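Comment thread on ticket #2218

A.B. wrote:
> Attaching the input chain for the structure job we discussed in standup.
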Amino acid sequence: MKNVILLTIDTLRKDVLGCYGNQNKLTPFIDSLQNKCIKFTNAQSTGPYTQASFPGLLTSSYYLEYGRQKKCSPKRTLISEVLKKSGITTAGFHSNPYLCGYFGWNRGWDVFYDSMQDEVSDKIPYIKGDGINYKVDQWLSSHIKDNHYRPFFLWTHYMDVHEPYIPAKEYLNKVDPSINLSEDEMLNLFKEVILKRDVSNKEIVKLLKKLYDAGVCETDNYIKEFFSILEKCNVLKDTVVIITTDHGDEFGEHNGLSHDGKMYSELISSPLIIYFNDRTQGEVCNTLVSNIDIPPTILHLFNLESFEKFRGHSVLPLKNYPQNGVFGEAIGKTSNHEKETDKPTCFYQENDLKIIYREANQSWEMYNLQEDPEEVNNIIKYSSETERMKSKLKPQINRWADY
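C.D. wrote:
> Ran it. Output below, let me know if you need it in another format.
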């Protein structure tokens, strides 16, 4: 039995990866893995920010499935709980406050590090990737003794791409050596531009994207270090690694910044790469899949039966995956904090058609992603598919009636 690792990179846009077509060489290590990977070109997140997306990633359920709750509902079952009951060792290492033990994400883990007791700063409000890697290295070294150990599931999450976009100078130089900003100046951009969602100055928005890109470059290096740890511990040869994100980030594409309650591709369309050390040739899968499929896929990789409460399907084997539409939902917040008055929003995608509904103004949008990948031409009023696509989404909207 192999080990399985879920490696999630917070706020990672698919279009910054070279293996998805980016020409800026930001992710040389991830790109170098491709001959040992299955790469999914049409994977979607179930939500555009952490609280809305991670129920899909770790519990194979939707954000509002059990009502509008700030904590992980006890009615949800984490993949760690299922695996631990099956005798698999489980370990999680991250520094995202929304996924900490206080919010209920610590269930089912033999080891769970969420950094909430550690000191952080306004400039870097999380534990950086090298710190997470150090914790992983310590744990693996203690778990693996004389090469005899129980199969494990390891979840590792990096925050280094996330705002406030204050990358180390060496990575900023790789993106644009002409940028000469102090950490205080970068922090001020976060406070005065990102938090205020101010896209009025296009050059400033471009600058923010370069700072973000430098964070991507830095994180790629942490992933390289992570794989080196697996090699050093002699477990990579027996391990499958799933690499993905919870959501993307916006840089003015739909008149906003950061990641609010919107359902556009810059936030929803996700990289999904599954690494097999024994593969000799890469494979590309264009099937539409969802991050809600990741927990069932993990069960499949451990040769375990599917779990009845999980809403997704294993993406493996590829030939058995049911090619249905995908769904996602969130609260349509317009700032970094969700307000009680904010209303739900949701999307449904089938092939190249995506339909979006916003409860706040009861509005509908629909896009043909093949003809209009930037989602600027709303075809809801004249498409022959409008009523059929609405009928797919309305049952999910009706679930909101009680809250």
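A.B. wrote:
> Thanks. Noting for the ticket: The mean pLDDT is 96.
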